[in-house]
Specification:
Layout (H helix, E strand, L loop, with lengths): L9 E9 L4 E7 L4 E6 L10 H20 L3 E8 L4 H10 L3 H18 L7 E4 L4 H13 L3 E3 L5 E3 L24 E5 L14 E3 L1 H13 L3 E7 L3 H16 L5 E7 L2 E3 L16 H7 L2 H9 L7 E3 L1 H23 L11 H18 L4 H13 L11 H17 L8 H25 L3 H13 L2 E6 L2 E6 L2
Parallel strand pairs: 3-4, 3-10, 4-5, 10-11, 12-13
Antiparallel strand pairs: 1-2, 6-7, 7-8, 8-9, 14-15
Length: 472
């Protein structure tokens, strides 16, 4: 299978692993200093576990590196799968509507990501709010003879008509219809459905991301991210149907896949179906968000990651060494020792160069951590003196800058943490107000709007959705 770097394009100087050619290749963007990113979000049928969370924390780190180290603005879009067999089943088991299950777990998902300091995507998209877009997408595939209606009234993608299947992962299509996949699933008795040209039903899993990503980001996207378990069949099917829809050879220029999270001694990935999960709430009862982020940093984003008490203690020890250094560097005093020649400045310069080199090498965050540790080790902290202050504070700045670039909450950053908590609370209030609006209780909605305005928060309504901003 062939892969094509964007032309014309802008070479970032970064090497990134490409699963199509199975090697690192130059990261070339279609627009200078701007990358488009689509991330596969969760199917919201249950609480977020740390296997999911590790994917979003790792991808958050990559996004921050691009933005803060390489000055590449990342335009981020994420979907929420809010209709699915598992959501319907969970509703039946809990005697709730499928909508309640989806909304409750979606709200919890965004709260969990905020608690882990994961940046919000610029655009969040729900499947149920894009049914018309998905139907249009399928209709066009049908018009191109790339889709057909099966005997059960579902609509399938016709792989016999598509020549480049197996781009991300080698797969045989000799079985014909047996490997065709559903674009539209015909309605079952008692399940939610939407009207379509093929009769009542709902979208297949793979089509939703293609339709929603194409709606916002069009026919060619720089980066598409998700866990390695999505590589096949989900991402393979996305690429196939999207190339067929747009009439192109390459829809996504770079696929970013994060490694599985496993518990110590467990050979399987962490997943709800295996009942070996740890929720984000359970994680944060024992460890800090910083500690979990450090665990994610200490391996390449593509590699599997082990979660265990020993692993978390190790990441905590690494984190504490950084925090101890920053604290000591802030409080050194006394002495009149002078440093020999310019060896200190030379070491700082070399470390800065090493960090840049590591990050250009497929975002080697573990290498950056090691370089920063070596830089701190170059200083004998027991012999700090007043004459060393300028040098030590320069090292402190280098350490702090890189940790903040990775998304750590450092001493003195309390204002940012409070702001994050405020955002979570405001989003909850906004959700509650929108429930009133949907129920046509506009008086209650206006009372909430007026109350928020009194504390400096302005609400704007956009159809059925709303946004907020702090005034002044």
């Amino acid at each position: 299978m062939k892969w094509y770097p964007p032309k014309p394009g802008f070479d970032t100087g970064i090497q990134v692993y490409n699963c199509i050619v199975r090697k690192k290749v130059p990261l070339v963007l279609r627009r200078k200093n701007l990358a488009t990113l689509y991330t596969c979000g969760p199917t919201v049928y249950d609480a977020t576990h740390i296997g999911h969370a590790s994917t979003y924390v790792k991808l958050d780190i990559l996004r921050r590196i691009l933005q803060r180290h390489f000055n590449i603005r990342v335009f981020s879009v994420m979907n929420i799968t809010d209709i699915d067999d598992k959501i319907i089943r969970k509703g039946q088991e809990s005697e709730k509507s499928w909508k309640e299950v989806a909304r409750e777990n979606e709200e919890a998902f965004w709260r969990d990501l905020k608690s882990l300091r994961v940046l919000d995507p610029h655009i969040k998209m729900r499947v149920t709010e894009n049914i018309d877009e998905i139907i249009k997408f399928i209709r066009k595939l049908e018009e191109k003879d790339m889709a057909y209606q099966a005997s059960d009234k579902s609509v399938n993608f016709n792989l016999r008509k598509y020549e480049n299947y197996g781009k991300l992962q080698k797969i045989s299509t000799e079985a014909g219809d047996n490997v065709d996949f559903a674009l539209w699933k015909s309605a079952k008795v008692g399940e939610p459905s939407w009207e379509s040209p093929w009769g009542p039903g709902r979208p297949g899993w793979h089509i939703e991301c293609s339709a929603m990503a194409s709606k916002i980001l069009s026919a060619n996207i720089d980066l598409h991210a998700g866990g390695i378990d999505l590589k096949f069949p989900h991402h393979e099917n996305e690429e196939a149907q999207s190339c067929a829809y747009h009439g192109c050879d390459q829809w996504i220029n770079y696929w970013l896949h994060t490694g599985h999270l496993r518990q110590h001694g467990d050979t399987e990935k962490m997943s709800k179906s295996l009942k070996n999960t740890v929720s984000v709430e359970e994680l944060l009862a024992d460890y800090s968000a910083n500690q979990f982020r450090m665990l994610c940093l200490l391996s390449n984003y593509r590699n599997p990651m082990i979660f265990s008490r020993d692993a978390m203690e190790m990441s905590g020890n690494v984190l504490n060494k950084f925090l101890t250094f920053l604290s000591q560097a802030e409080n050194i005093s006394g002495g009149d020792r002078m440093l020999p020649d310019d060896s200190f400045l030379q070491k700082i310069s070399e470390t800065i160069e090493e960090i840049d080199s590591h990050l250009r090498d497929d975002f080697n965050t573990a290498g950056v951590v090691k370089s920063l540790q070596d830089l701190m080790g170059f200083i004998n902290k027991d012999e700090f003196s007043s004459s060393d202050l300028g040098f030590v504070h320069l090292v402190k700045e280098v350490v702090e800058e890189n940790l903040r670039n990775f998304g750590f909450d450092l001493p003195g950053d309390k204002e940012d943490s409070d702001s994050g908590a405020d955002s979570v609370l405001l989003e909850k209030i906004l959700d509650m107000r929108n429930e009133f609006r949907r129920g046509r209780d506009f008086r209650a909605a206006d009372v909430i709007r007026s109350g928020l305005k009194e504390i400096g928060v302005e609400i704007k309504d956009h159809g059925e959705k709303s946004s907020w901003r702090k005034m002044g």
